[in-house]
Give the backbone structure.
Amino acid sequence: MELSASILSADLLNLERDISQVLEMGVKWIHLDVMDGHFVPNLTFGIPLGQAIVSKFKVNIESHLMVDNPDKFLDKYCSFSKILTFHYEAPVQTNRTIKDIEGFGVIPGLSIKPGTHPSTIEKFLPEVGFVLVMTVEPGFSGQKLIEDSLYKVKLLRDYREKESLSFLIGVDGGINRENIGKVAATGPDMIISASSIFNGDIRENINHLKSAISVVTNGQ
């Protein structure tokens, strides 16, 4: 079970410092939240930041496109992303976008909002390498975890096993020190956290989150 750091809550004036600390703590994934102000009511990062990160650090980036047109500039996003995730709810041809991402040699990911049932995306699961379960309405960091969304992880795991598929499952939204154990107990492959990593002492925060994950995965 991997911990991924969403830089949505990082100190943007000291981003190099914050990412360095995260990597020093053994976190191997950086989560890049890309928002366009239309699909979600916020504006965040874009292509130049992702390119800058990979030019400076050896790290895996999972880019989460919360945009109306995820198929636009796919080549640019794929140039620095290990996983490129877009939303099922976006007005786009899902099958085509998945195939286009794969064509660039990048793992295609599909994300669903809290109100979207996993059965809605079943037909796409054989084609994707990653499914991101949102446990808040996408747009802003620091929201409260919608616990009712966690059931989706088990459904996706059961479906993956039943159909002998290999896509990874991620959970993102409202995950903190108090609830990460409950999230980890559902069995995702990746847990994304923003404010609970970057607000305060980064090293201490990561140690606490990793310890909580370890307790669950080791059955203690």
Observations:
- The two ends are 15 Å apart (CA to CA).
- The beta strands are 2-6, 29-35, 60-66, 83-87, 107-112, 130-134, 168-172, 190-193.
